[in-house]
Amino acid sequence: MRFAAIATLLLSLSFPAEAVAATPYSKAGMRVDGTICVDAATGTVLSEEKADFPGHPASVTKLMTTLLVLEDIRANQTTLRSQVKVTKAAADIGGSQVWLAPGESFTVEEMIYALLLKSANDVAVALAIDRAGSVPAFVARMNRRAAELGMTRTTFVTPSGLTYGKGPHDTTTARDLAKLSVTLCRFPEALKYTSTKQYILRRPGKPLELLNHNYLLSSFPGCDGLKTGWTVAAHASIVTTAKDKDGRVIAIVLGCQSPAGAKPEQRLRDSLAADLMTQGLAKLKKLEAEKALRLARTPAPAPARKPPVKAKKDEGFWDWLVDLFSF
């Protein structure tokens, strides 16, 4: 107990008070920028911790890139079979990639798989240039769409989330990412891509196997998305979703840090996201049960009463009187 108390004290001295979230993993030295769990159908908040604290989303940024591409498809501005040509700017981006070569072409659908499973930065840039003509023009679209979704504390600077050093960095909050994710989950095709564990990118003479970075797809029942992210500058983040018969939840862990390094903080991030989804699904089930109970206890409305029928007056005398004085 004394050791735990000392460890907690040291953590509080090491990090600013406003930057330390109260989580079950605080004893492991974990720090998170923010968490939230929402009902995917309505956006109703089921739990939150520092949901408005700013952090860097890393490759979770690619969810906005995906949303814009899917919206363009829905608006008939492109199709899944449309070819996207790779430019030198895309091929030279660095970081996680599928090693696109200038002049190569792939369909939009192939690129979406590479974007979401492999978290390919070269694909993000290729799609950005294809859809807007240049990366800055596409980033401007990203920020306009974020404003339309009410993501008031979000600023995108890349279509991929890949930033270095002092930045500038893509910046957002757990709450803003929840707004983006609720919108994205309204596209069934998005969940088809994010739930895919393996995909073969067909390249001439050199097929490339893409494996999904989201390990919760295999370990958490009902999980079918959405995206992981990690960079040195942003640390580990995840947006994940799961469904059961009572509904669907979306959980966000933003900026998970651990003094033990990248892999431990990614594992802690996944554990926290799994806990958030477990608690969120349980709360949804409880809310549905309470709703059913209220409906059962509400008395049925009484049948509408018909107005009484007025008896007709005997008009014989009056008719005789009128006839008497009629000339």
**Secondary structure tally: strands:** 9
Helix content class = 40-55%
The biggest sheet, with number of strands, parallel, antiparallel or mixed sense and barrel status, is: 5 strands, antiparallel
Q: Strand content of the residues, in percent?
A: 15-25%
What is the string of helix and strand elements? Answer: HEEHEHEHHHHHEEHEEEHH
How many structural domains in the coordinates?
Answer: 1
Shape: globular
Q: Tell me, rounded to a whole number, the average pLDDT.
A: 87
According to CATH, what is the class?
A: Alpha Beta
Rg of Cα set? 29 Å
Termini Cα gap: 115 Å
Task: Output the strand order for the largest sheet.
Answer: 2-1-9-8-7
Individual helix count: 11
CATH homologous superfamily assignment: DD-peptidase/beta-lactamase superfamily
**Do you know the CATH architecture?**
3-Layer(aba) Sandwich
> Low-confidence parts lasting 5 or more residues at pLDDT below 50?
1-23
| Secondary-structure content class | alpha+beta
CATH topology: Beta-lactamase
Q: Could you walk me through the main structural features you see in this protein, from its secondary elements to its overall organization?
A:
- The chain is α+β, with helices and mostly antiparallel strands.
- The chain has one domain (9-290): DD-peptidase/beta-lactamase superfamily (Beta-lactamase, 3-Layer(aba) Sandwich), CATH 3.40.710.
- It has helices spanning 2-14, 62-74, 88-91, 108-117, 121-132, 135-148, 174-184, 188-194, 216-219, 262-297, 316-324, and strands at residues 34-39, 45-49, 83-85, 105-107, 198-201, 208-211, 223-231, 235-244, 247-256.
- A 5-stranded antiparallel beta sheet has the order 2-1-9-8-7, with helices on both faces. It has a two-stranded antiparallel ribbon with strand order 3-4. A two-stranded antiparallel ribbon has the order 5-6.
- β7 and β8 form a beta hairpin.
